[in-house]
């Protein structure tokens, strides 16, 4: 019998301590306090309040069975505080979890009115690349985007590394200078070195 009374006294003492903790926690969760709390602090207080109320219920159940329903504790007071503060904390957590919506109406309107400059780009025409791709790929298989991109990369690399060749036809110009001779000059005068007289004149003794 003494042991039962000691157990009841100890349970009431523990329950009183937990009840006081719940009261202090609920007192620090006014509307203004909750509004100023950060999201991590709200979650910590919510978890702590749930844990304390679970302990409070556990002690109350044990006392109910040991004291033969003679416990004079008013559970509704603690439950009212618990559920009221829990609702406030959960509501605040839900509001702070929602990311702020960005109003894109102004951005969309300003972008729609922005006139971008017109860029003139010439169409790239390379019929050789198209023919080379058709010749290289396997006709028995469906063409894949990955293979086509790899071919274009190899093609672009080959075009970058290729040196431009310019072939110019070289013309050989031969300049021939014609020596001007007198109309009365004799062809025998300059036949050989040392001949300064006409062959006929030499024969005639001229």
Protein model, in words:
The structure is a single chain. With 206 residues, this protein is mainly alpha-helical. The protein has a domain at 2-97. The protein has helices spanning 2-27, 31-36, 39-66, 75-97, 105-113, 127-136, 145-161, 199-204. α1 runs antiparallel to α3 (39-66), α1 (2-27) packs parallel to α4 and α3 packs antiparallel against α4 (75-97). 9% of the residues are buried. Mean pLDDT is 75; it is low at 191-206.
Order of helices and strands: HHHHHHHH
Main sheet specs: none
Using the CA coordinates, give the radius of gyration: 56 Å
Mean pLDDT, to the nearest integer, reads 75
Beta fraction: under 5%
* Portion of residues within helices: 55-70%
Count of distinct strands: 0
Shape: elongated
Structural class: mainly alpha
What is the distance, rounded to the nearest whole angstrom, between the alpha carbons of the first and last residues? 182 Å
Structure annotation, total helices? 8
Low-confidence stretches: 191-206
């Amino acid at each position: 019998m003494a042991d039962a009374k000691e157990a009841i006294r100890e349970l009431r003492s523990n329950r009183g301590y937990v009840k006081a903790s719940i009261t202090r926690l609920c007192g620090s969760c006014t509307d203004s306090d909750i509004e100023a709390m950060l999201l991590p602090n709200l979650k910590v207080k919510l978890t702590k309040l749930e844990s304390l109320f679970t302990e409070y219920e556990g002690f109350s159940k044990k006392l109910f069975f040991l004291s033969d329903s003679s416990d004079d504790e008013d559970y509704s007071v603690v439950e009212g505080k618990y559920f009221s503060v829990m609702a406030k904390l959960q509501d605040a957590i839900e509001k702070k979890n929602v990311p702020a919506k960005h109003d894109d109406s102004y951005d969309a309107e300003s972008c729609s009115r922005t006139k971008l400059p017109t860029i003139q780009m010439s169409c790239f025409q390379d019929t050789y690349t198209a023919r080379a791709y058709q010749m290289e790929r396997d006709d028995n298989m469906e063409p894949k985007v990955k293979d086509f991109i790899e071919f274009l990369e190899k093609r672009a690399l080959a075009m970058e590394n290729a040196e431009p060749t310019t072939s110019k036809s070289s013309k050989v110009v031969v300049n021939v200078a014609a020596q001007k001779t007198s109309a009365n000059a004799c062809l025998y005068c300059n036949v050989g070195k040392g001949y300064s007289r006409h062959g006929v004149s030499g024969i005639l003794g001229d």
